[in-house]
């Protein structure tokens, strides 16, 4: 349990660093640097909800463990965002502006599903031995405006607020990842991949 929680906190910190760069630098540099967050999660073997949920069945992950990962990612992510808000007022302004564009809508939900699709592909490709899915996939979902629940909770922490759209982001990421798992579940991970990391 301790390792599960620690690795979930670690994932929140890594995604937080990527999100800091995104808020600070904006397009086009921010989305590219943000990819470092997921690269760190995968190569360091941290627990990120959006990297795990698509492999719920393939890896025989306990649903209770997945929910712990999600809860810790959300709590630690929000706290990381709050800490960042004291470090740089410029990113607070960017975060507040970003949250102002979010809405509890079908459009937001679909964009969260699409983010889940990309996250699953990125992690699957990593497990097959290449980081290219992360390097291209992360900037892709950011440029397209897709919604990532852990990045969003960090942004909410920076803005020191909450928004109901986080529920849609969580559900959408989960559904999108499982959709891609269903259509690719016969793909075998090569020996180069590491099934424990993501």
Salient structural properties:
mainly alpha, Glycerol uptake facilitator protein, 198 residues, disordered C terminus, 0% strand
Folded structure, characterized:
With 198 residues, this protein is mostly helical. The protein has a single domain (2-184), classed as Up-down Bundle (Glycerol uptake facilitator protein). It is built from 9 helices and no strands. It has helices at residues 2-25, 29-44, 49-52, 63-87, 89-99, 106-127, 132-143, 149-159, 165-184. The longest helix has 25 residues, at 63-87. The chain starts with a helix and ends in a 14-residue tail after the last helix.
Computed CA radius of gyration, to the nearest angstrom = 15 Å
Determine the fraction of residues in helical runs and give it as a percent range. Answer: over 70%
Distance between the termini: 17 Å
**Count of domains:** 1
Within CATH, the superfamily carries the name Glycerol uptake facilitator protein
Query: Which CATH architecture?
Result: Up-down Bundle
Q: Tally the helices: what do you get?
A: 9
- Taken from the alpha-carbon principal axes, the silhouette is globular
CATH topology: Glycerol uptake facilitator protein
Query: H/E element string?
Result: HHHHHHHHH
Structural class: mainly alpha
Q: How many β-strand runs?
A: 0
Uncertain spans, ≥5 residues at pLDDT below 50? 191-196
Largest sheet: none
Overall pLDDT level = 94
Strand portion: under 5%
CATH class type: Mainly Alpha
């Amino acid at each position: 349990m301790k390792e599960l929680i620690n690795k979930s906190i670690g994932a929140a910190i890594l995604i937080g660093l990527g999100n800091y760069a995104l808020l600070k630098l904006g397009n086009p540099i921010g989305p590219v640097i943000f990819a470092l967050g997921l690269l760190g999660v995968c190569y360091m073997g941290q627990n990120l909800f959006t990297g795990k949920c698509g492999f719920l069945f393939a890896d025989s992950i306990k649903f209770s463990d997945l929910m712990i990962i999600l809860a810790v990612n959300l709590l630690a992510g929000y706290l990381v965002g709050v800490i960042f808000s004291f470090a740089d007022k410029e990113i607070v302004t960017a975060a507040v502006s970003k949250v102002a564009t979010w809405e509890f809508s079908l459009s937001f939900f679909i964009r969260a599903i699409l983010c889940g699709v990309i996250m699953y592909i990125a992690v699957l490709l990593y497990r097959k031995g290449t980081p290219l899915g992360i390097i291209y996939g992360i900037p892709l979902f950011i440029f397209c405006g897709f919604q990532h629940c852990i990045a969003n909770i960090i942004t909410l922490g920076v803005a020191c607020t909450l928004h109901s759209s986080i529920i849609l982001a969580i559900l959408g990421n989960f559904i999108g990842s499982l959709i891609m798992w269903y259509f690719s579940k016969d793909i075998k991970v090569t020996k180069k991949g590491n099934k424990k990391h993501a």
